[in-house]
Amino acid sequence: KAGVTQTPRYLIKTRGQQVTLSCSPISGHRSVSWYQQTPGQGLQFLFEYFSETQRNKGNFPGRFSGRQFSNSRSEMNVSTLELGDSALYLCASSLDKFGNTIYFGEGSWLTVV
Amino acid sequence: DAKTTQPTSMDCAEGRAANLPCNHSTISGNEYVYWYRQIHSQGPQYIIHGLKNNETNEMASLIITEDRKSSTLILPHATLRDTAVYYCIVRRSGETSYDKVIFGPGTSLSVIP
């Protein structure tokens, strides 16, 4: 069965622009979580969704937002991009909210120039 | 969730078994040991997980000590494509949030031809 799919895979944006990243979880998975990964900070939790509801949010500014649709697909948006937002953005899905195995997508590489 | 410690790097000859250790001395009874790996520029790939019994799948074997304070991931016949950073994490079962998914520095495994 297909894994977690993230689009786009690579993108370059200019400071001040906004970006939307998309994630399709594994079929049947209802929980989606997002992470930012940078060489200096490692993997940092952004947010988590289950049944279209945000369950938890990491320590990121309000410029970072997300949502989940009724088909469990999820999007995250970053507005007013800054150079420091350059990172690998990872989406992960899990069957439910009960600590099951999480599976990561390939990620979206965002470069802000 | 319990913290884990792993060696920074390891080498393994191609075709030989790679044994990657992980220490999780503060693990609690309802916490699972998970292993992921990340090849450069890709998302983390789930390998295997276990609670207290040894586990094996098509990718690897997981050996957990009787006191559960440490574990070893075994790649039985390492290939060049197994060169990656390997992460050992512990996560509790039951309703939980994915904000506790913390990847430490991991072990950088280099498979040598």
Mean pLDDT of chain A: 94
Instruction: Based on Cα principal axes, name the global outline of chain A.
Output: globular
Largest interface: A-B, 27 and 24 residues
Q: Can you tell me the overall shape of chain B?
A: globular
Largest sheet descriptor of chain B: 5 strands, mixed
Uncertain segments of chain A are none
* Fraction in beta strands of chain A: over 45%
Portion of residues in beta strands of chain B equals over 45%
Q: What share of the residues of chain B lie within helices?
A: under 10%
Order of helices and strands of chain B: EEEEEEEEE
Spatial extent as radius of gyration of chain B:
13 Å
Order of helices and strands of chain A: EEEEEEEEEEE
Topology:
The complex is a heterodimer of chains A (113) and B (113).
Chain A: E1 5-7, E2 10-13, E3 19-24, E4 31-38, E5 42-50, E6 53-57, E7 64-68, E8 74-78, E9 87-94, E10 103-104, E11 108-112
Chain B: E1 9-13, E2 18-23, E3 31-38, E4 45-50, E5 55-56, E6 61-64, E7 70-75, E8 84-92, E9 107-112
Parallel strand pairs in B: 1-9
Antiparallel strand pairs in B: 2-7, 3-4, 3-8, 5-6, 6-7, 8-9
Give structural notes.
Chain A is mainly beta and 113 residues long. Chain A has strands at residues 5-7, 10-13, 19-24, 31-38, 42-50, 53-57, 64-68, 74-78, 87-94, 103-104, 108-112. In chain A, strands 2, 4, 5, 6, 9, 10 and 11 form a seven-stranded mixed sheet that branches. In chain A, a hairpin with an 8-residue loop joins β9 and β10. The mean pLDDT of chain A is 94. The model of chain B has no long low-confidence stretch (mean pLDDT 92). Chain B has no helices and nine strands. The A-B interface holds A 4, 6, 31, 33, 35, 42-43, 45, 48, 55-56, 58, 88, 90, 92, 94, 97-99, 101-107, 109 and B 32, 34, 36, 41-46, 49, 91-99, 101-105.
